[in-house]
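Run log, item B.
One chain of 452 residues. Sequence copied directly from the ordering sheet:
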Amino acid sequence: MSAALSTGTISDTETLRTERSRILAELLHVVDELADKAVETMREEIPAYSAKGADFCADVRQQVGRHYRTKLAVLLEERTVTFEDIAFTRRASMRRAQAGFALADYINAFRVGQQVFWEAVVEHAGRSYAGQEAALTLASPLMRYCDFASTHAANAYAEFQQYAAAETVRESRDLVELLLGGEAPARGPQLATAHSHGLNPDSRTPLVVVAAVLVGAEAQVDAQHAACAAIARTEVSKHRTLSVVRQSEIVAVPSLGPGGDVGKLCDRLQAVQENLLAEGIVLAMGISTVVEGMAQIPRAYQEARSVLDYLPEDGGVAALPRISPFDYMALRADDTARHLVDPRVAELLSEDRMRGGVLTATIRAFAAADLNLRAAAEQLQIHHNTAQYRLRRIQERTGRNLRHFTDLVDLLVAIALQDVLPPATNSGRKRLVSTTNETDGTADVPSAHEPR
């Protein structure tokens, strides 16, 4: 703090908040200049940074600017920094690791950036007691931000270093090519690599194959390797997942190991896809069924590749272990199958989809409850009479009695065929809550002639 500290006491919380907001708003207006100063200071204090050229400096400046803007947003909103706020750091960490920077130099850059930012806070606080008290209230959240961001960056850096160390060994890629060709390693480095990933040619090890591709304009090489590194960490056994970049795709072979939980693996892969999306990396991922042994890897790979075709243009995860045969047949159905659906059924389901899907939910709940209407009503959290009323409306509109097995199957097939279509839109009507249905313009309650 400045030696020219004015005397006084500040007890007014609102005054402190006003001063804090003023300081942060002023910093927001000079954030580009602060980023320039931070990069200049890094080049002066860190030899590894001073040795790099203009492109590298531009990359660092862009990262520093994003951190400063994120930091200011967190402080202005008076909240704690989250992973989503700083998700952009993963790819920068990977680039620093690729460039050969020591982790100590990379983390030192965070210290320099924090130092430049804090000096700017002090400068803009001014010499008034209120301003300097407000600056002091920013010290703790600024330290928390720096600790959180630098820890996340260090973890991402170490993750990529581990991945890159494996990727530089040609045996990993050669092993994947060998496995996809239907062969198993017999000796040498490839066999050792297989064992290190829990893959044993002499056993019927349960495993799946994952095929993933980047989607959109951000399908860049660094993003591809970042995604590959993240997938490599999704093991459910004690072994690291074999994951390699193969031209325009990523291929991974997670070994489930004895008693491995494929559901847990799918959860982790789903989390990887969502975390990468938060970092601006859009991934489409297909997961095969569980197969036993290396001989089944080519078939599993074809499964994983083929299911990618059913994902939307904005990516996602298609996990075959979570898809029933019934749903898979609907997924593979062509337009002819949809043309075979009774027009009355198709019309009702289409209208219901636009209006919230409560009738569709009722059909599914009734089937899941083994035709027990009371159990279905409890699942839907509606009155038994309301559930009964819905069933009667469905029968009136479609001619299908849900208590007849063949009629119920017809409706379930039609629903499954509709599920794989793009989401319905109906901007002219507000989406209804699950306890209301306006398919025919009436509230979803029993009629006056129904017992209550």
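Observations after the first pass:
- The first helix runs from residue 13 to 29.
- The first strand starts at residue 206 and ends at 207.
Flagged for discussion on Thursday.
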